[in-house]
Inverse folding.
């Protein structure tokens, strides 16, 4: 069985794949073009893409040998699931193993934005720091502040636990339904059935909903207008959830205090309107970027490929 891995994975996972299957690796570790992906669909049995690969309908146009797309990552909005289904191709992802790493990055962004750490480092590296003074780079405390979570899945819950138990924050959330009673009791979490009501009640807003048509530009100009002028927006979910032009305008005019972003709509491109703003922290999609998590993601993908090869049910099938 021939397997294409579209980007380099941790060495341990690549070796494990190569021990079991005929594997082609992407030595230069560059994003593949749509034409290259389309050719691969006819040359391999399994495609192992990442978020940097756009698997749209055109990729399937010339027929497909591929029978499984084993995505390296939990998000799969870069894959046209309807087109894959029409070709009879199964799609899997790697859920569960990214939870703690992504929650850590959410808190990293929250702390950096609240304490103006990005501004401070830039000032120091540029040689502009003139020394300590009482009014220098005043930020926001966390204790007693409301963390509003948009979505209440595993990563949101892990983020809330860190915020409540580690920093003494209060927890509120918006979602399609209330979370499990034991989680709500543990976190003393207040449920908001209306998104804009949650935004208006929160000092920090952290996004934890999947990408896709339903959530595209969920945080638009109206949503940002519902936030407090002293509040902060944190996004570790998907870039398309936020209207970045509206966000840049809100930040530039100080209608919100700051933001922390790890994801963008058209990566690796970062919205130009954000780059010159001091009150936004910009990270290069580091949510799962620790060694343990990246290996675990690869092993999850490998488990799906192995199950496929044996004709067994796929453990993480999404389509």
């Amino acid at each position: 069985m021939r397997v294409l891995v579209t980007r380099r994975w941790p060495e341990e996972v690549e070796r494990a794949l190569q021990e079991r299957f005929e594997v082609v690796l992407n030595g230069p570790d560059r994003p593949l073009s749509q034409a290259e992906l389309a050719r691969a669909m006819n040359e391999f049995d399994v495609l192992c893409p990442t978020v940097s690969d756009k698997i749209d309908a055109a990729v399937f146009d010339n027929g497909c040998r591929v029978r499984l797309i084993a995505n390296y990552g939990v998000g799969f909005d870069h894959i046209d699931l309807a087109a894959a289904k029409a070709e009879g191709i199964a799609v899997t992802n790697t859920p569960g193993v990214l939870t703690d790493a992504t929650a850590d990055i959410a808190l990293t962004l929250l702390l950096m934005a609240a304490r103006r750490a990005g501004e401070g480092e830039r000032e120091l590296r540029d040689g502009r720091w003139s020394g300590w003074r009482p009014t220098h780079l005043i930020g926001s405390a966390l204790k007693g502040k409301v963390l509003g979570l948009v979505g209440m899945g595993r990563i949101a819950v892990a983020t809330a636990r860190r915020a409540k138990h580690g920093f003494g924050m209060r927890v509120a959330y918006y979602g399609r339904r209330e979370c499990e009673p034991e989680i709500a009791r543990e976190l003393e979490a207040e449920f908001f059935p209306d998104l804009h009501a949650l935004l208006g009640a929160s000092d920090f807003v952290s996004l934890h909903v999947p990408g896709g048509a339903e959530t595209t530009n969920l945080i638009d100009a109206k949503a940002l207008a519902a936030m407090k002028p002293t509040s902060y927006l944190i996004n570790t979910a998907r870039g398309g959830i936020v209207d970045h032009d509206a966000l840049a305008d809100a930040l530039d005019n100080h209608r919100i205090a700051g933001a922390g972003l790890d994801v963008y709509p058209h990566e690796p491109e970062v919205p130009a309107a954000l780059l010159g703003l001091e009150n936004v922290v910009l990270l290069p999609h580091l949510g799962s970027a620790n060694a343990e998590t990246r290996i675990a993601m690869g092993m999850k993908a490998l488990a799906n490929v192995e199950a496929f090869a044996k004709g067994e049910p796929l453990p993480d099938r999404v389509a």
About this structure: Residues 199 and 289 are 29 Å apart (CA to CA). The chain has a mean pLDDT of 97. The longest strand covers residues 146-150.
